[in-house]
Amino acid sequence: MKNELTKWHAAYIQNAYRELERGTTRKQLEALDIDATGKRVLDVGCGPGNLLVALSVDVPELLVGVDVDTRFLVGGRSHIEKLNQQPVETPRLMCAALPTLPFADETFDLVTCFLVMPHVPDDSVALTELARVLKPGGTLAISGHGLGFPLRYLKRFRLKPLQMYLASLIYRCTGKKWIRNTLQNDQKICDILSSVGVVPEIRHYNKRVLGCVATYWVKAIKREISPKAIQ
Hints:
Rossmann fold; 7 strands; globular; alpha/beta
């Protein structure tokens, strides 16, 4: 069945909520100075909704999570219902994905999109869509994989790092993703954000491997006036 949890999904959900209980998820938000108090929040690529549960502590006005994998959504809803302490604002989980989000322009005050960029078909198109649903003055928080990420797999999967580097090179040269797990240069991501009117404010790197960034985190603010309006 499509919505039946696989062992991988079950393990992923369990680990996600274990990190939530340990406070790891909340620390990621604090590192970017994210505050969801009274805000309309969208988490793109929400998985089982653990980030939204962490954000619920701030008492936002609205919490919405979208993911393309319905098994995460079903498993996430079930897990949230079983939490000992129910979130103040219950997250609404729905099936949707970049590059087409089912929301009107300028709907949300805060948009989060963690570890999704490696898997989108086109970085620029995805970031433009995230900016579209964000209100002027709103906050966008994203993260992705840098050049150091595949090095973590050298011992366990010798071919996977090579595959990721090759796919990333092909994407840079052709604009097409051979596999949906490419690496990004965080400066290039920031340049794209600036071009669509979302100005990077904070950059955070929580892991490095052999001196290379494994995971980058960016907080950016949408300009009150779009670049096109200025022109």
